[in-house]
Amino acid sequence: MAPQVVECRARVEAVRSLTPEIVEVDLRLLEPAELSFEAGQWMSVPFGPKRVRAYSIASTPATGRGRISLCADVAPGGIGSRWFRELRPGQVVEFRGPTGGFVFNRADPRRPLFVAEEIGIVPIRSILWDLYQTGFGRPTTLIYWCRDPSWLAYDGEFRLLARRFPSFAYLPVVREPGPGWPGERGEAPDLVERTIPGVEGLIAYVAGGRDAINKVRAVLVAKGMERKAVKWEKFW
Questions:
Q1: Rounded Cα gap, residues 100 and 42, in angstroms
Q2: Alpha-carbon torsion 10, 130, 63, 165, what sign?
Q3: Fewest CB atoms within 10 Å of the CB: 4, 5, 113, 136?
Q4: Is the CB of residue 51 less than 8 Å from the CB of residue 17?
Q5: Which domains occur in the chain, in start order?
Q6: What CA–CA distance (Å, rounded) separates 128 from 185?
Q7: What is the pTM of this model?
């Protein structure tokens, strides 16, 4: 059964800048005292009758039901970006959730491929940590694209995950690497094309902008994957 959507109040415990334009906040729940959610879901914040912004949950269900972390790209500079950027410890906020169907089905025997574009990494980060915190041992690949290395939020965490779990392959790729970048260069669809030789027994989870989602899906479908085997979460 999916978690129930509820109205929530919480107190900001901590605010962190993960990159120059990506901010993560820790929230201690006040009402209700605990919240059930699935890794990959998001919460919505109202800014008026018809103005709502969605923020993915970066933490995992195993972190504790009385506390969640949300993460946002504040570069757009709109009403939601300003609100998120101005959050401070001690502040009380209201939101609604959890919502969203971009969740991993553990009963599915297929090998997962995760592809993230910039802020699209947030629900995938929650899913991956949830899987490996709870004994998931099947081979998994993450392809994570950003414009340059400074945008790779959670990069250190994924490198740690890859060292601890040999079945997890982490492939960061950037468009503008700069001097000394040791990883892949280019765009996410290109890396999918180069590193995923076949799609038999594969399921894909793609999160980011519409253009990236469509291009990654086109690459996988051209390799023989069914369109419905590509799950996606569109951020813009």
A1: 6
A2: negative
A3: 4
A4: no
A5: 6-99 (2.40.30.10), 111-234 (3.40.50.80)
A6: 23
A7: 0.95
Higher-pLDDT residue of 206, 75: 206
C-beta atoms surrounding 189 within 10 Å: 22
Q: Which residues contact 205 (CB under 8 A, 6 or more apart)?
A: 102, 104, 112, 113, 114, 115, 124, 127, 231, 232, 233
Give the least confident one: 19-33, 44-58, 94-108, 209-223. Answer: 44-58
As a whole number of angstroms, the distance between CA 156 and CA 65 comes to 25
Distance in angstroms (rounded) separating the CA atoms of residues 32 and 66 = 8
Calculate the CA 168 to chain-centre distance.
16
Nearest to 188 by CA among 220, 159, 156: 220
Strand extents, DSSP E, 110-150: 111-117, 140-146
Give 142-168 pLDDT, tens digit per residue: 999 999 999 999 999 999 999 999 999
